[in-house]
Amino acid sequence: MMLSPMITAAVAPSATTGDHWLYVAAPFLLYLATVVGLVLAGPGGRGTDIVSVLCHPISGSLRRLTGYPGWSMAGVLTGLFLLGVGVVGLYWDVAYHIDFGRDEVLFTPSHTMIVLALGGLIVTAGVTVLFATLERDPSVPLIAGLRVPRSAVALGVLGLCGLLAFPLDDVWHRAFGLDITLWSPTHLMLVGAGGLATVPLWLMMVEARAGAEPTLLGRGIEALALGAILTGVSTFQGEFDFGVPQFQILYYPVLAALAAGFALVLARLALGPGGTLKALAAYLVIRGVVALVVGGALGHTVPRFPLYLAAALAVEATAWWLGTEHRLRFAVVAGALVGIVGVGGEIALVIALGWFHLSPGFLPKAMVLAPVAGGAAAVLAAGLGRVVAGGRQVGAGALAAGGVALLAVLAIPLPRNVGEVEAFIRLDPVGKSANVEVELQPPDAAEGATAFGLVSWQGGGRMLSELRQVGPGRYVSSAPVPITGTWKTMVGLQRGNEVMAAPIYLPADVEIGASAVPALTERRTPFVRNTEVLLREAHDGPAWPAIVAYSSLAAMAAVWVTLFAWCARGAARRPDRPAGKPPVAPRTTQPATPRPATWAT
């Protein structure tokens, strides 16, 4: 399992070599060098203690370079750095498990990067409070003698939730085995805490705008923060990024529409004309670097990613056509177009690249659910966008409706049933691989399928082969697939809410007591739920760990949403203007009166 705390033997090469640990150390050495440079470039430190002496020049350097108060930039840049380390660790970890299977040890470099990133969010929150307090920024709420930005509170809570997920993850695996799914409840806590921590980092810049005169670099950092939000909400698509989906393929358009609808609509409201393209450029740089590190430098399966270009253009076109004054109207139309035009572009990309198995049978339902997902996410983004002056704000009723719609479209593709389908599999060996012929009973079993093909993994990489029809119910592989060593090969079939698989070759796994499924020249076998092949390590367990895990996930999600609303409410009360300039009133019939920031909600 990715992020697993269990220690097992594996045939995979070691993931803890000295060279691999350099990928952990190098970013932190670069961060330390940057801090030293800011100290040397800043004005002389004030005070008698070492903290004041160091913080003052750092704050001065950050303000001069970005135009934002030092406390804001200290928190934002540290948080973005840590989340960058964490996202590399996450995709590295997933890629390792897809390529080689289980870890040999607990503290692999990728696990360590994830832990440092999540724990570092708490440190980042403390750093932000420290700088704001030393700077005596009057715009930041004062509590118990400390200047505490709301965004720092949210960031610290997210980091704490991420760390709390680790012991819960251990309980989960002890109860249910060593699964390899990104979407277990404990993994959703980890991924959710890290991915959504990008939101309070952006809000940290919004909180500081009253005393800011952003430079070109400062504006670039805000675009980077919004691109990081797009990256963060896209991490839930991880199993599609690596082309080994375990859930209905319908989740891909739903999740892509959700991510693009939320992040790109928010970017357009925050940055104005061209804002979606600026955030998209930052996202592409982040994901490009991750792909180069994981797929290039580390030599693992490349984590591909949606480009969101069509979605960004759809949002920009909607803003040009309708404007953004009426934010609910803008969000609904932009989100729906993201689900149609934007998702259509991503589906075309998947088909062109052969990213994972995709059949036309899923398009009708995808074109219904994706616009709803995009529209619902965009409405929530417009609600969060209340921190940006101007326009008619989205009401509580619309936000509640958006939340309900979002939960509904996430629940619809959840079932994974099994139909009565049997496969007669014939192999024609070619060295260590084989060409495959699959004959289905009933012969029309794959007609209207949403996905149908061969996939191989954990032999040092991941391979796909299409199944081409040569007769009624008869299909042959487009290329040979591996049938020896540590490789695992299966034929997958998805149709409607049925997600099935039939094994072709599986090696024995003595650690979990799993027998081999040999590569026979001929085999007749029924299709089973795909998790019986993909998650051989998983087993049944007591009910209470699942109750604790899912209840904790629901509680954390509720806390996160509440914190974001609280931060947005506080930031919306702040004058959104550079220091010394008149306030920018919302474009309504009555001028807005800026109110001082308080802890009251």
Question: Could you give a quick summary of the protein structure above?
Answer:
The protein is α+β, with helices and mostly antiparallel strands.
Overall description:
By secondary structure, the protein is an alpha+beta fold. Among the domains are: 1-211 and 539-578, no CATH class; 422-529, Sandwich (Immunoglobulin-like), CATH 2.60.40. It has helices at residues 18-41, 50-66, 70-100, 109-135, 150-176, 185-196, 198-207, 216-234, 238-241, 251-271, 275-297, 309-322, 327-353, 363-384, 396-411, 531-534, 543-572, and strands at residues 142-143, 146-147, 422-430, 433-441, 451-457, 462-471, 474-477, 481-482, 488-495, 498-505, 522-526, 528-529. The strands form two sheets. Strands 3, 4, 5, 6, 7, 8, 9, 10, 11 and 12 form a ten-stranded antiparallel sheet that branches. A hairpin with a 4-residue loop joins strand 5 and strand 6 (462-471). The longest helix is centred in the N-terminal third of the chain and has 31 residues, at 70-100. Residues 1-12 and 576-601 have low confidence and may be disordered.
Number of E strands? 12
Calculate the terminal CA-CA distance, rounded to whole Å. Answer: 41 Å
For the report, how would you describe the main beta sheet?
Answer: 10 strands, antiparallel
- Total helices: the number is 17
Average pLDDT for all residues: 88
Ranges where pLDDT stays below 50 over 5 or more residues in a row are: 1-12, 576-601
Percent of residues in helices comes to 40-55%
SS-based class: alpha+beta
From N to C, what is the helix and strand string? HHHHEEHHHHHHHHHHHEEEEEEEEEEHH
Q: Give the oligomer, counting copies of the same chain as homo and different chains as hetero.
A: single chain
Q: Looking at the structure, what is the overall shape?
A: globular
Percent strand equals 5-15%
Q: Using the CA coordinates, give the radius of gyration.
A: 25 Å
